[in-house]
Structures are given as C-alpha cells and as structure tokens.
Write a structure and sequence with these properties.
- The structure holds 2 protein chains of 2 kinds.
- In chain A, strands 1-2 form a two-stranded antiparallel sheet.
- In chain A, a hairpin with a 4-residue loop joins strand 1 and strand 2.
- Chain A is built from 20 helices and 2 strands.
- The mean pLDDT of chain A is 87.
- By secondary structure, chain A is mainly α.
- Chain B is mainly alpha-helical.
- Chain B has helices at residues 3-28, 33-58, 118-141, 148-167, 171-189, 196-227, 249-252, 261-278, 287-290, 296-305, 310-317, 319-323, 326-347, 353-372, 377-407, 425-439, 445-461, 463-469, 476-487, 522-551, 570-593, 595-600, 609-612, 622-643, 660-665, 670-718, 723-744, and strands at residues 69-83, 106-116, 235-236, 242-243.
- In chain B, the strands form 2 sheets. A two-stranded antiparallel sheet of chain B has the order 1-2. Chain B has a two-stranded antiparallel ribbon with strand order 3-4.
- In chain B, strand 3 (235-236) and strand 4 form a beta hairpin.
- The longest helix of chain B has 49 residues, at 670-718.
- Chain B starts with a helix and ends with a helix.
- Classes of the chains: A mainly alpha, B mainly alpha.
- Chains A and B meet through helix 7, helix 9, helix 10 and helix 12 of A and strand 1, helix 26 and helix 27 of B.
Chain lengths: 552, 745
C-alpha cells in the first residue's frame, strides 16, 4: 500500500504522539516553561511586578522536581520490577527527538532537585537583588530547560540546540554583576568562546550527518558501522573522525575539558559565586549526561542487524576504540591540569573552578570505562554509568555546599579571597566544619559521599582493566586518577589550614554570619547529605544503578 | 517496644547523652552530669528489661536452646562476589551438598547488626549498672574539676562504645568498638593531661593496646579469608539460601563447622593476643597499673569492671573457634593462670592503694582466662560469673579507694595514712565487704565464682574424679588429637561428605602440627590448678594488707588532706552502699539458683556440640571450697600478722622477703625488660630512621611537593586572560589529539 498523504491521519498521529505520549513525560520541562512565562509576565504587568520572583521560581521548580520524582519512581518500578535481567525501558518523545529512560529520569531529578536547593540558596544569599530577580531566575530556568533537553537528547540536532539553549542564558548570567568590569569581561569571553565552540560543533554534526545520512542517535552506530564496514573511500572515515572530533570540541567546551576550559576560571572568578555554583553543578551534570549519550551512540554495537554482522562489529569496535581514546585523553589531561592549576590559587572561586575542571576529568574517566566495556561486559558498563550518575548526585551537594558557603561568607566578609577566611574557626566553627566536610568530600576521603563516588569511579576503571576493555588506557587512567587525588589533597586542605590555623586578620570588617540562622540551616541541609550518602549510600546507589541500565 | 528497639536504645541513650554533654556541657556548668546520669540510668533500666526478655524467650527447657535475636540496622558496604572460596575452604555452606553452590562467590557486606543473647544481655546489665553508679559517684568525686563536662561526656561515650562492643553481631563492628573503648580509655587515663605521668600513662596504654589490636585486625582478616563472612549470625542471601555466620546456628550445629589446625590456631592465638592487650594479660599487662593515673571513677568503670573484661568477652564469644583448637585453649589457661599468679605476687608489695587494686584486677582477669581455657561449659559460665561478681566488688573497691583518696587530698600511698576506720565508717565498711568478696570468703560474691573457677580447673586436672559424676565428658579433649588424625583420610571425599563422625570437631587438616596441643594434658592442668589455689591465698593476703594498712591502727592523715579529711559526701557513699549489696549477695543468689549458668548456656556460642556435651549440673565442691577458703584464710592471717593494728604503718612483713622484695617491688622488672629488649632497640632504629627521614625522605617529599607547585605555576601561565591565546590553545589541543590518535591508532 502506498502511503497516502492523508493530512488528517498525520495530524492525528502527531496529536496522539504529542499529547498522549510525549507531554505527560515532559511535565518537569513544562513546569519550567510555565514558570519562565510567568516570571516574564510579572515583569510586564504593573500589579504583578511586586510579586517576589524568587517565590514564583521556587514554586515552579518544586513542581518540576515533584514531577521529575514521580517520573523517576514510575520508570524505576518498570525497570526494577521485572524479574528478567533489567533492560532499558525507553520511550521516544516528539517523534524521536528526545528519549525518556531511567537515565533521563535520574538526571532530570538531580537537576530539578538542584534547582530547588539553588533557588533557596540564592534567596538567602541575596544575589540576585529584587530588581534583577525575574531576569535572573528566567535565565537560570531557561538554561536548566536546555540542560533537561541535553540529558534526554536523542537526535544530533537536539544535541546542538540543547547545548545552545543551556549556554546562551549562562553567558548573560556570567555578566549579571553589573558595574563590575571583571564580570562583563568574563561574560564576553565566555560568549565568544562559546559561540566559536558551538560553530565548530555544528560543523561537526553536519559532517557526521552528511556521511551517515541520519541524525537520530540510536541509528548512528548502525549507519556508522555500515559506512565503515563498506570500506569505500577512506575519505568517509576521515570525515567521520573529523566530525567526531569537532563534536567533541563542543562537548569539551561545555565540560570545561582541557584545552577548552579557559573560560571557566575567568567566568567563575568574574561572576557571582551563585552563578559559579549553577555552572559547576547543573551545567556539568548535563554535559556529562550528554557525553554519555553521544559516546554510547557512537560505540554501541548495533545488535539488531543480522546481515554483515562480523564486518560491522569490527567496524564498530574501531569506532569505539577511537571514542574511548578521545574521552580518556581528555579525562587524563583535564584531571591533571585542573588539579595542578588549582595549586597556588588565592581566590576561592577560582580554586573551585579548577576543582570543577578536575572533577570533570574524574567523571570522564568513568565515561571512558563505560564506553570501553559496553560490548565486552554490559554489567561493568552499567556499573560505570551508575558510578557517573552517583558521582553527579553527590557532586551536587558537595559543590553547591562549597559555593553556598563562599556566597554567604562573601556577603559578610566582602571578599572571596582565601586569605580573608583566616581564623574563621574562632568566630564561626560551624561554617568551618561545614566547609571541611565539603572539601574533604571533594578530596574523596571516607566516610563522606565523595569517597564513595570516587571509589565507584575507580572501581569501574578496575572492572574495565580486569574485563580486558582497553586495559592499558584504563590502567593509566587509574594511575593518573589516584595520583591526582593525592595532589588534590594539598590545595583543598590549605583552605582548611587558613580557616583554622591562621591568625584572624586585624582588618576584618565584619563578623561572618552566625551559624544558628536560616543560612546556617541551609548550609547544614547541603552538607548533611554529604555525610549521609557517605554512610548510607546503598539507597542512592540503587537509584543510580537504575539510571545505569541504559548501558546494559 | 520490641526487643530490637530496646536493644538499640541501650547504646543510643548514652550516645545521645554524650552528644548533649559535648554540645551543652559548658552551658550546664555544674549540672553537666545530668545528661550522662539520666542517659545511663535509662539505658540501665532498658538493659534490665532486656535481661528479662532474654530470660523469658529462653523458656524453661532443660536442654539449652540457643537464643539470639539479631537486629540488622543497615548494610554499610556491599561488594558483590568479593569472596570466591577455594574448594577446600571452610566457608562452604554447612548443611549443603558438595557442589558448586557450596562454593559460590560471596558478597562482602558489613551489616551493622546488633544481637541479643544471654551473654550480651548479661554484659549490658553489668556495663550500664556499674556505669550508672560510677557516674553518680563522679558527681561528688569530680566536682570543681575544670574538665567536669568532658569527664561525663567521655563516660557516656564509653558506655555507648562498650555496649556496642558486646551487642555487635559482626567481627568488624567488634573491632570498631574495640578501638572505640580503647580511645575512651586513652582519653580518660590522660584526663589530667597536664600531669606528665598521666599523659605518659595514656600513651603507654595506647601503644601497648596497639599490639593487641593488631592481633585482632589480623585475626579478623584471617576469619574473613577462612569463613568468607564476618557476621556472627546467619544471613539470608537474596536467592533464599542461608549464608552461615561464623557463630550462627547453622555452623554451630555442625560438628565440623570450624577450622582447626594451623589456621584455626592462628586465628585463636591472634584473638587471644587482642584479648591479652585489652584485658592486661601477660605479657601485655604493663599498661594497666599505670592507667591508674586517670580519675578513680574511670579506673573503677573502665579499668576494673568493664573494658578490661572485653578480652574475656571476646574469647567467650569465640568459644566455638577455640574449641576446634585444643592447643589454643590450653594457651588461654596457661596465660591466664600465670598472669593471675604473677600479678598477685607483684600486688603483695605495692604501697599505692590503687595499684594494689590494679594488680588485683589483672590477677582476677587471669582467673577468668584460666577457666575460659578449660573449654567446658562450666569454665565458660564460670568466667562470665566471675566477670559479673568481679565487676561489682572491684568497682566497689575502686570507688572506696577513690573515696579515701578524695578525703586524703589526693594521697594514695598507704604508708602515709592509716586508721581511717573511724573517720570514714561507710567507706571502711563497704571496702571491707569488697575485700571479703575479692578474697573469696563465704558467703560473699567472689567465693562462689572463684569456687567454680577452681572446679573447672580441677575437673581438667583430675578428669577421673569427675568422670563418674559427669559422664566422662571432660576427658574428651585429651582424646581429641587422635580423633583428628583419622580425619586425614576423609578429606578426599570432600570435607562435608560423611556425616557419621560427630567426634570430629575440627578440620581435615591434621592438627598434630600444632605443638601447643601437647600441652593439653592433666599434668599441666594440675599445675595450673595449684597455681590458681596459691593465687587465691595471695589475693586474700594483699587485699587484707591494704585493708589493715588503710583502715586499722592509729589515725594518721597526710598533710595534703588538711581539714578536708572527712567521710565523703552521700553522693559518693550511696553508690558504695548500693554496690555493697551485689558484692555481698549476688554470688550466693546466682549460685544457689544456678540461674546464671543455665541462662548463659543458651548463648549461641555455648551451644556448639563440643561444649554442650561438657554440660554438668553445677555441684558444690566441698573439697575445693574448703581448699579455697583455707588458702584465703591463711592469706588473711599472714596479712593480719604483718599489718593489723599498730603495725599498719610500715613494711613489717616485706622485710622477711629479702632479695625477692625489690624484685617484686620493681614489678619483676618487666617494664625494664621491655625497655631493654624492645624500647631501646626500637629507639636506636628510630634514631637511624630519623636521620634517613630527614636527609632523604623529607627532601624527596619536598621535591614532590614543589613539583606540582612548579608545574602549576607553568600551567597557570597559560591562563593569560587573552581570548586569542585561549583559542590558539584550543586549536593546538585539537591538533595534538589528532597527532596522538594518528600515532596511537
């Protein structure tokens, strides 16, 4: 039967797909959209102008988090209940542009949870002020919307669009501190650098789609193995490699992977600490999730295909080899560079910027291990992706805690220099203890959540080594990771040393905030999970393990 | 209020009290004792109710039925398939056929689990009740001390750690809280850290205990390697099979569930080493006398009644492991008896009242080890019985000594005071009761428990005498090696294959390689019995020497006391009076009703077949009772000759000792021996190591420390702030990756 161009049926299918399937699973994003619209409307209408934009944003993100939670529970029960070996339950939304699976659900929950805490934190820390509130929150929510698309991207076009959607508002956020040259300069650099990276990425995507004839991520590996196995011209292989590298440049920019990290310290130092928190947690989580999706798309064996199996399998093995090496290289360089550069920083935000870069390196190590194991040991790959998911969830609390403390201290001390924290233990032991928990967790020492996260990452590297997936590379990654953990001790602990041992500076203008206060409660709320997930990590790991099912 | 909830409450309440004291201690000021006293009191009530619960669930059956309730709070770490047992491993599941299932990989999981069984319930009652009385007493003793809140926080913390130690159902948790009580002990010995002796004593206790702790750590590793689990209890794996715990009922019911031979003996000896450290047994006893630098209530609670009995608890808890290794068992007895005798000898010439009591504690703990090593149900229950009575009367004696010290202005040298009988009547009376109990005079508590200890040793030395009365089960252990040597033929079948040999309580490894087994013969046990009997006499002697020197004769008060010399306030004397009650009656009550032995027999660890068959109705051994009483009476008479009345002020008796006296006064030169043999060589090595450290290691560390800094500064140079350079770096980076991949792929 030749397909008739029946507009009615088409419209009906479109309607059913959109309303019945896609929109119910898109509720968290819809909440964000609605909140943005509401925020902007409030700015326009004279009476509503006096509404508190932070309150509106908080309400919106709470709804989003609630729906994200419900979605995660429902997909969790779908994945977990089956007695058969867990396989990924996936639903394609909007005609295959997005995908909803447990990985999407978990990360969307992490993002939405982050937003709830983040909005509360910004309300407490006073940036943005009343004037900027609506702008700030609509930019944050807009960027988060892009990040939600990043974690659920199922199409290379959506990859590009989501990255842009997440990036463009952050350029503006970086320049939010009006009247501060450093802030404006950082924002401008960020925007230019981001625009360049986006251009390169788009070019890479068009090269890839040109050769493969598809933009849909699940089809990429099949098409690629076909193209590679067909041999044909070596030109197509080269174009694919080039396209892949260009795509990775775009991702590396979002991940602030070396050598595309230069924007990161400048932006973190120039922008408010709150913006730094947003970029280092949410943006990083989304970028890593996107990396997982794209990397798997380019390296998963296309098992459906029965014809020409062996040749295709060999071809995809080569491609996987390439992907693993690119990610592994980026990981090793990023991690080492971030940790080395963090030495000798005098500004806390800049130090945290390099720390963020280093942690992106650790995360990419696990991604490399996951991709390396995807064909050899699906269980190992699943564990590795779970490690990534777990890391991101705990990283949320660690880093948001660190930036939150920096922001709240800035309000009182009027400084973000490490030296201005000298002797804080004498006036505010609570803050110093909270900071100590966060920093020690960032180092990765037990019994804090950072230890468990790092343990899971390293154990996935060990899994890869023992299962023979790219063993030499994984072994060197393991060694580099361990070495980096050791050297990271120094600069994190130096902050604590200044806080505890150094004498109180005589010119301190004001006292830090009292720990028994709403701000103190907020910090406690951020820091306690770091301790709790270090001791009771089974529950969170079980959730992360659900997310990891996409790899098996 | 389920039992498991109550069980959690026992440690939880003191923990909350400790936290409350830490947080609000300064604000509470002179009322800083409130959280600790209330918390421990509540814990004591809960512990008593748990005792009742356990006793009820045991029922009235004649044959002991194992009673335990395990509460798993949470799983801390789970690593799948961590343990892949070898095919000859003993971690295989008892009760399953030989096959792949029995040897399937096992997860490593640390279950934070607490257990309730008769042994735990008994220990919990001792810990919380003595802890409560000591805490009340300390209100008076520690008043005006600048560290008042700190003291109560530590005591509450200790009660928490100690109750967790005895309630833990996992060797790893035992290790954790083993260290925790050690830490509390360290902090309390060094409570007055401004005093150099206190700081030094704390350090010594800590270091000596490290040796024992090391043994425990290695022992736990070996347990994991051998049994593939660290849990005491059986656990249910997700697929429905039972994973037998080390002291779980599956393994206990299995006659060949425990490893003997070299591995088994090594585990037992390592556990024994740990017990020796914590319970101050030879050769690791040197820390306990110095530990008396701490506040006296802490000495009473930690270094007399509870923490030092942790070693006894550990050995009793691990009884099935020891039963598989007769050589290790007899070692326990030899160490215990020797310690008892040596410590009693040293105790006879000490002039420091608290040190006399410290050596007495070491000696009494030696008694407990002596009867643990007999490997009979009578021995195990007698050890816990003595632990119980000792906790009360030794706490009483220590608190009495503290009362004396308190009123003498901190002086504790017995030569400098005397005749305090009239000045401090309550202290004197209660101290006398404690002394009678310690000396083993009927009908005070110590008499009955000591009688059982002597009986258990006697039954090993003269098995024939007990043969007719007790169906000859005591003769079992000497026969054991021969039974083991047959087992060599069976392990080809697989260690589980045959089920009709129930005499075989050990492994397929021939155990005649362990030379220690040779010690297990009646002649040795006879010697041990006589040593124990001599110790009983010595105990009575030094105890009453202290009583006579302190309380009889003309009144003498040191200058330090000033006008302060008086009977202690009622907050201190009340605990003395309360403790005097169990010190007087508890032995008689528990012995005549035979309640404790029956109760304890339901502890899972004591229900392994090799122990159960040694069960015997407790008989009152008139001959042993008379021997023991005679020895004690002789000791008291000699003490009276030397020190009663006017003669109480000087070393009357010790003059006759001649050259032995300095030998004993210097504590048999054991400390000096350690200094010469261990400390000095280590110091020499340390000196060399320090030179090496400074000249080589420090330099290389400095180099390594500077390296990242130098590299970091190079790296930071790249961050120039110029966007063009950033872009250039990106381009170079991509080119570098291309070059690398082209070269690598």
């Amino acid at each position: 039967m030749t397909p008739e161009l029946n507009v009615g049926i088409l419209l009906n299918e479109l309607f059913v797909d959109t309303v019945r399937v896609s929109l119910p699973l898109f509720r968290p994003e819809l909440c964000l959209v609605a909140t943005i619209v509401l925020l902007l409307l409030c700015r326009m209408l004279p009476l509503l102008r006096y509404l508190d934009s932070g309150g509106i944003a908080l309400g919106g993100v709470c709804f989003a988090a609630w729906y994200a939670y419900i979605d995660f529970l429902s997909i969790g029960s779908q994945v977990g209940d089956s007695l058969l070996p867990a396989t990924a339950v996936r639903t394609e939304l909007f005609g295959g542009l997005l995908v909803f699976d447990s990985f999407t659900a978990f990360l969307r929950l992490v993002l939405a949870g982050f937003l709830v805490l983040y909005v509360v934190l910004t309300k407490l820390s006073g940036i943005p002020d009343r004037e900027d509130g609506a702008d700030f929150y609509s930019l944050v929510l807009g960027s988060s919307l892009g990040m939600c698309l990043m974690v659920s991207a199922n199409n290379l076009l959506i990859v590009f669009m989501a990255v842009e959607m997440a990036s463009v508002p952050s350029y503006a956020l970086a320049g939010m501190l009006k009247g501060r040259p450093a802030s404006s300069e950082a924002a401008l650099k960020y925007a230019i650098y981001g625009a360049g990276a986006a251009g390169v990425m788009l070019y890479g995507i068009s090269l890839i789609s040109g050769v493969l004839g598809t933009l849909v991520l699940p089809d990429v590996s099949f098409e690629m193995s076909r193209v590679l196995a067909a041999g044909g011209t070596s030109g197509s292989t080269m174009v694919l490699c080039l396209g892949g590298l260009m795509l990775s440049v775009g991702l590396a920019f979002k991940l602030s992977a070396v050598p595309f990290h230069f924007w990161c310290p400048d932006v973190f130092e120039g922008a408010a600490a709150e913006v730094g928190a947003f970029l280092s947690v949410a943006s990083k989580a989304a970028a890593i999730a996107l990396l997982v999706r794209v990397a798997f798309a380019f390296s998963t064996p296309a098992s459906d295909d029965a014809v020409g199996m062996s040749a295709n399998a060999v071809a995809i093995t080569d491609a996987r080899h390439f992907v693993v090496y690119v990610i592994g290289l980026f990981a090793a360089v990023t991690c080492t560079f971030g940790n080395l550069a963090a030495y000798g920083q005098t500004n806390m935000k800049r130090l945290l910027a390099y720390s963020t870069i280093a942690h992106a390196g650790y995360l990419m190590m696990a991604v490399a291990a996951a991709v390396a194991m995807v064909a050899i040991s699906p269980q190992g790959a699943r564990d590795a992706v779970s490690a990534v998911a777990f890391y991101l969830a705990t990283y949320l609390f660690m880093n948001l805690g660190a930036f939150g403390i920096v922001a709240l201290l800035r309000n009182r001390l009027k400084s973000e220099e490490i030296s201005s924290y000298a002797g804080l233990i004498h006036v505010s032991p609570g803050i110093v203890i909270a900071m100590a928990v966060v920093l020690v967790s960032l180092i990765g020492l037990p019994p804090l959540a950072g230890f468990v996260a790092k343990f899971l990452v390293f154990s996935s590297l060990v899994d890869a080594i023992t299962s023979g997936a790219e063993s030499p590379l994984m072994l060197s990654l393991l060694v580099i990771g361990g070495f980096n953990t050791v050297i990271s001790l120094f600069y994190y602990l130096r902050v604590l040393k200044v806080m505890t041992f150094d004498p109180v500076p005589e010119d301190r203008v004001s006292e830090p905030f009292p720990f028994v206060s709403i701000s103190g409660a907020m910090i406690t709320g951020l820091v306690l999970p770091v301790v709790i997930f270090g001791v009771f990590w089974s529950g969170l790991y079980a959730a992360a393990h659900l997310a990891g099912v996409i790899a098996s | 209020m389920t039992p498991s909830f109550l069980l959690v409450l026992v440690p939880l309440l003191p923990l909350l009290a400790a936290l409350a004291t830490v947080i609000g201690g300064r604000r509470l000021g002179p009322r800083a004792h409130l959280p600790a006293v209330v918390g421990i009191a509540a814990a004591a009530v809960v512990a008593l109710s748990l005792l009742v619960v356990t006793a009820r669930s045991r029922g009235s059956a004649e044959t002991p039925r194992p009673v335990d309730m395990v509460t798993t709070l949470w799983q801390w770490a789970t690593v799948d398939d961590a343990y892949a047992p070898a095919h000859d491993s003993h971690a295989a599941v008892p009760g399953t056929a030989v096959g792949e299932d029995a040897y399937s990989a096992r997860p490593f999981s640390i279950s934070i689990a607490m257990r309730l069984d008769p042994l735990t319930a008994t220990m919990l009652v001792i810990i919380t009740s003595v802890g409560l009385l000591v805490a009340i007493y300390s209100i008076g003793y520690m008043h005006d001390d600048p560290g008042y809140p700190r003291f109560f926080a530590l005591v509450a913390m200790f009660v928490f750690s100690m109750s967790m130690l005895v309630a833990a159902s996992n060797f790893l948790l035992v290790y954790v809280f083993w260290e925790a009580v050690g830490a509390c002990s360290y902090l309390l010995i060094g409570f007055w850290f401004q005093k150099p002796e206190a700081a030094k004593a704390a350090k010594k206790a800590f270091l000596v205990n490290r040796i024992g702790d090391f043994g425990l750590a290695v022992g736990v590793f070996l347990l994991w390697l051998t049994y593939g689990t660290l849990d005491f209890h059986d656990t249910l794996s997700p697929d429905g099979t039972i994973l037998p715990g080390i002291l779980g009922q599956t393994r206990l019911a299995d006659v060949s569930g425990y490893v003997g031979g070299i591995v088994g003996t090594a585990i037992c000896l390592l556990l024994l080493l740990a017990a020796c450290g914590k319970s101050a047994q030879l050769p690791l006893h040197v820390w306990l006398p110095d530990a008396m630098e701490g506040p006296t209530p802490a000495s009473a609670l930690i270094h007399a009644a509870t923490m030092v009995t942790a070693g006894v608890y550990l050995v009793a808890r691990s009884a099935p492991l020891f039963m598989a290794c007769p050589g290790a068992l007899v070692t326990v007895s030899i160490i215990g008896t020797t310690t008892a005798l040596v410590a009693a000898l040293i105790g006879t010439v000490q002039n420091d009242l608290k040190r006399v009591l410290a050596y007495s504690t070491i000696s009494q703990l030696g008694y407990m080890f002596a009867c643990l090593g007999t490997g009979t149900l009578l021995g195990f229950t007698a050890a816990i019985f003595h632990l119980l009575t000792h906790a009360f009367f030794k706490a009483l004696l220590f608190l009495g000594a503290g009362s004396v010290m308190h009123s003498m202005g901190g002086v504790i040298d017995m030569r400098r005071f005397g005749g305090l009988r009239k000045l401090m009547p309550i202290t004197a009376t209660t101290f006398l009761i404690g002394s009678l109990a310690l000396a083993g005079i009927a009908p005070f508590a110590g008499f009955f428990s000591k009688d059982e200890i002597l009986a258990s040793l006697h039954s090993k030395g003269w098995p024939d005498v007990h043969h007719s009365a007790e169906n000859g089960h005591h003769a079992m252990i000497p026969e054991l090696p021969s039974a083991l040597s047959h087992s060599g033929t069976m392990h080809d079948v697989g260690y589980r294959g045959v089920s009709n040999y129930d005499n075989h309580s050990s492994s397929h490894q021939t155990s005649d390689v362990v030379g220690l087994d040779a010690l297990n013969q009646p002649a040795v046990w006879k010697a041990l019995f006589w040593m124990a009997l001599v110790t009983a006499g010595l105990t009575a002697f030094y105890t009453f020497r202290a009583v006579f020197m302190t309380f009889t004769g003309p009144l003498r008060i040191p200058d330090e006391a000033g006008d302060h010399a008086h009977e202690s306030p009622s907050v201190m004397t009340t605990p003395l009076l309360i403790l005097a009650i169990p010190a007087t009656f508890i032995g008689f009550i528990l012995f005549t009703t035979d309640g404790l032995a029956h109760f304890l027999a339901a502890t899972p660890s004591f229900t392994t077949p090799s122990i159960v068959k040694t069960a015997t109705a407790s008989v009152f051994h008139w001959d042993l009772a008379i021997q023991g009483t005679l020895a004690a009476a002789l000791g008291i008479v000699i003490a009276a000759v030397g020190h009663l009345g006017r003669r109480s002020d000087g070393p009357q008796l010790e003059r006759w000792l001649g050259p032995v006296r300095p030998f004993l006064e210097h504590r048999m030169f054991i400390d000096q021996l350690y200094a010469a043999v261990i400390v000095k060589p280590i110091e020499a090595i340390a000196f060399l190591a320090a030179i090496f450290d400074r000249s080589f290691i420090d330099r290389s560390v400095r180099f390594v420390a500077h390296l990242p800094l130098a590299l970091g500064s190079v790296v930071r140079q790249l961050q120039s702030g110029l966007l063009q350079r950033y872009a250039l770096a990106g381009v170079i980076g991509v080119l570098a990756i291309i070059v690398f991949l082209a070269w690598r792929l």
